[in-house]
Design a protein that fits this description.
Layout (H helix, E strand, L loop, with lengths): L2 H7 L7 H22 L6 H9 L1 E3 L2 E3 L1 H15 L1 H19 L6 H7 L3 H14 L14 H14 L5 H5 L2 H31 L7 H44 L7 H11 L3 H7 L2 H10 L4 H18 L4 H15 L3 H13 L3 H13 L4 H17 L3 H21 L1 H21 L3 H21 L1 H21 L3 H21 L1 H21 L3 H21 L1 H21 L3 H21 L1 H21 L3 H21 L1 H21 L3 H18 L6 H17 L4 H15 L7 H19 L1
Antiparallel strand pairs: 1-2
Helix pairs in contact: 7-32, 8-11, 10-11, 11-15, 12-13, 13-15, 14-15, 15-16, 16-17, 17-18, 18-19, 19-20, 20-21, 21-22, 21-23, 22-23, 23-24, 23-25, 24-25, 25-26, 25-27, 26-27, 27-28, 27-29, 28-29, 29-30, 29-31, 30-31, 31-32, 31-33, 32-33, 33-34, 33-35, 34-35
Length: 750
């Protein structure tokens, strides 16, 4: 292959394959004309026009580039020498430029309809070898509830005492700040009530002054509330880290060390800064060199120091804690150092590295409960990476271990059996093993009901959570009546818990109302759905008033659900207002925390773009969808395993938009890129239906618009195969499989 064509073929920096296709095609056509002229042949202008512009033959539009691709494909099949040359020369050149990529011409032949698809396929294979970098994404929803449960459980298990949590100056400082903000808010609320009363009693000329005063007071109240929220979040995180530090100190009780003894004493008195100073890293380094045999003690000191850093979070706290955890492992690799480091990494979204360390920690386990705990944590990471088979093995093994432990100590370990069953049920639901998932949830429910019979205050919440999971499963199984009954029971439990403890459980009420509203929408009970969703919105808005940082996202999620409902009711203007309001909130949240909230911006833009397309507001629809695609691509650079599916959805939506605008060539490009992504993802069963949808989009495009019988048949068959395992259970699969069958039936007759 000569230099000129290597330069054309290989991507230039900053230019995608799609952007360079016109250049590549033009080069190909020019080279043919040049080669004919070089052989002293006369080149008629009509021939040049045919090569560049195409021609019509038997009422069919012919394209020189497409014919060249078809000829090249046939040559690969008919000419073994050409295939050998491509493998040995052409692919060697590509390997040199982009790294080691193993491709066979036979594999290319199976999917290659055109040279363009070959080029795109190469790109998708290159993407597979890129390293995955996991970005930090924190979900703080229900944070206070989780922390409260953690404190209760830690005190019950004698990990820490209430005094050890509350004695420190830091704790008192947070509590005092929260109380001061609360007092300030009470005072402002009192003033607001007074102004409201005065407005009803004064003359009209005075009312504008009072209303301006009222607006100022409400702004002050919001500012106080925001500051109070920040302090509460800091307090929650502080308490969580104190408990983690207590666990680590307790695990080293049998280790003799002057520094650890001092650290325990300082911890008991809440002197955390002094504790950090006692564990002087330079002194530890000297002891590491001098006493290698005491590595276990020293490694634990480093691990505890890393935990202590998490309490106050100085600049570069993550890097510093990460360095100390890694240093502890370099001193000695055992259960304690590997598990603690893995747990730290998992909490901060370093999924690949955390998974490797959990795997290592398993080999150092000496107790069943240690191994079961690791397996549950490992399974959650594997589920996030869509490694369903590995995750199921991890959850199943953890479940068996906890069941064995619960035989001798049911009071301690039965609740862990329930948790493992819930994890397993979530996995089975996501991997389309729906009957197995229902058995797992029902078994978890049976355990929690038994525990709640003697201790309802603790375990009623577990029943509510499991019923919520079961309701989601029944909705997936299109058992809408059963799901409704399940959600109603979960709602009843959560309302009861929220009546006694609204701060902890009111959010759960709103979550179930949201699920119930979506179910009622699916069941075409639009009036009931609106009542449920509006009540959920009211609850979330109330919670967001007190704690906006935690619950504003839930307000936006509910607005999206209401928008989806209004769209189904064909009330497009109402739906658009809900979507726009949700997007406004997501944008505001993303300003301070883009890693968490940019994704929700993109999701809202996708919904809004589709609605604008339905309203035939094509320019606005294209703007919304392209903004969504840009966000997804940026997120994909950090974590491709998670956001590739979102990119494919948006590309498919853009393809539909271009089809609606009669721009079928552009539609083909978007559909093809979505198809390539979804084909790769379809190895996991949860992505089979989207893959079938992409096949259907292309089969329809090649049936009606860019007429191509071979391609249309190929994609229609792919759609039918993708939908097969979901029929007759999933109506979407039934409906779209029938559409693909109709396309095949048409081509059989034509």
């Amino acid at each position: 292959m000569d230099k000129e064509y290597r330069e054309v073929l290989f991507p230039k920096e900053g230019a995608s394959a799609e952007e360079r296709m016109p250049e590549l095609i033009a080069k190909l056509k020019e080279s043919i004309i040049s080669e004919l002229g070089g052989n002293k042949r006369r080149i008629e202008s009509a021939l040049k026009s045919c090569i560049h512009e195409g021609w019509t033959e038997n009422s069919k539009e012919m394209d020189f580039y497409q014919l060249t691709c078809a000829y090249f494909t046939q040559e690969l099949k008919d000419n073994p020498q050409l295939s050998t040359y491509i493998q040995t020369e052409y692919l060697d050149q590509i390997t040199t430029a982009i790294g080691v990529v193993s491709l066979k011409v036979e594999d290319i032949e199976k999917v290659m309809f055109s040279y363009y698809e070959l080029y795109k396929d190469l790109l998708s294979k290159v993407n597979k070898i890129l390293d995955t970098v996991i970005g930090i994404r924190r979900d703080i929803e229900n944070f206070s509830e989780k922390t409260a449960q953690l404190v209760t459980q830690s005190i019950k298990e004698h990990i820490i005492t209430e005094r050890q949590i509350t004695i420190s100056e830091e704790y008192q400082k947070y509590v005092k700040a929260i109380e001061d903000y609360e007092k300030g808010m009470v005072s402002i609320r009192s003033q607001i009530e007074g102004v409201h009363l005065a407005i009803t009693q004064v003359d009209p000329n005075t009312k504008p002054i009072l209303k301006e005063n009222l607006s100022n007071l409400e702004s002050q109240l919001l500012a106080k509330g925001n500051e109070k929220d920040k302090q509460e979040i800091k307090l929650n995180e502080f308490v969580k880290n104190v408990i983690s530090l207590a666990k680590q100190l307790n695990s080293t009780n049998n280790l003799g060390s002057e520094r650890l003894d001092k650290a325990r004493a300082l911890f008991a008195n809440g002197k955390y800064n002094e504790l950090n100073e006692v564990l002087n890293e330079s002194e530890i380094d000297k002891d590491i060199a001098k006493f290698k045999e005491q590595g276990k003690i020293l490694a634990n000191e480093l691990t505890i120091k890393a935990q202590a850093i998490l309490l106050n979070k100085p600049n570069d706290w993550f890097e510093e804690a990460d360095r100390l955890f890694a240093k502890a492992i370099s001193v000695i690799e055992d259960y304690n150092t590997t598990f603690n480091y893995a747990f730290f990494l998992a909490e901060h979204r370093q999924i690949n590295k955390a998974g490797s360390l959990f795997q290592k920690a398993i080999y150092y386990c000496t107790k069943y409960e240690e191994k079961a705990n690791i397996l549950n944590n490992l399974g959650i990471l594997q589920l996030e990476k869509n490694e369903f088979e590995n995750a199921e093995k991890s959850f199943q093994e953890a479940l068996l271990l906890y069941m064995e432990l619960s035989k001798e100590n049911p009071q301690t370990f039965l609740v862990h059996v329930g948790t493992s069953l819930n994890n397993l049920g979530n996995l089975q639901r996501d991997s389309n093993k729906l009957d197995n998932a229902e058995i797992s949830y029902q078994n978890a429910l049976e355990i929690y009901r038994k525990l709640a019979a003697t201790n309802p205050q603790i375990f009623l919440a577990n029943i509510g959570d499991t019923l919520n999971n079961l309701g989601i499963l029944q909705r997936v199984k299109i058992q809408l009546d059963k799901a409704g009954i399940t959600y109603e029971e979960a709602l009843k439990i959560r309302r009861k818990l929220a009546k006694d403890n609204p701060k902890t459980f009111l959010a759960g009420v709103a979550t179930t109302l949201n699920n119930l509203g979506n179910l009622q929408r699916d069941n075409y009970k639009f009036d009931k759905a609106e009542i449920s969703l509006l009540e959920a919105l009211e609850v979330y808005r109330k919670l967001a008033k007190e704690n906006p940082q935690t619950f504003l996202k839930s307000v936006s999620d509910t607005l999206i659900n209401l928008g989806n409902l209004q769209r189904l009711k064909n009330e497009y203007d109402k739906a658009e207002k809900f979507y726009e309001k949700a997007l406004e909130i997501y944008r505001k949240l993303a300003e301070s925390n883009p890693q968490t909230y940019l994704l929700y911006n993109a999701n809202a833009l996708n919904n809004l773009g589709n609605l604008q397309r339905i309203k035939k507001d094509y320019n606005m629809a294209e703007k919304s969808l392209h903004e969504a695609l840009k966000i997804y691509r940026e997120l994909d650079e950090v974590n491709p395993q998670i956001f590739l599916a979102n990119i494919a959805i948006t590309l498919n939506n853009l393809g539909i938009l271009k089809s609606d605008k009669k721009n079928f060539k552009n539609a083909e490009n978007y559909f093809q890129e979505a198809f390539i992504i979804r084909k790769d993802l379809s190895k996991d069963i949860q992505f089979l239906i989207p893959y079938g949808d992409s096949c259907n989009s292309l089969a329809t495009l090649y049936r009606w618009h860019l007429v191509d019988k071979q391609k249309s048949i190929f994609y229609a068959k792919g759609a039918i195969k993708a939908y097969a395992s979901f029929i007759p259970r999933v109506p979407h699969a039934v409906r779209w499989s029938k559409k693909a069958e109709d396309i095949l039936a048409y081509w059989e007759k034509n």
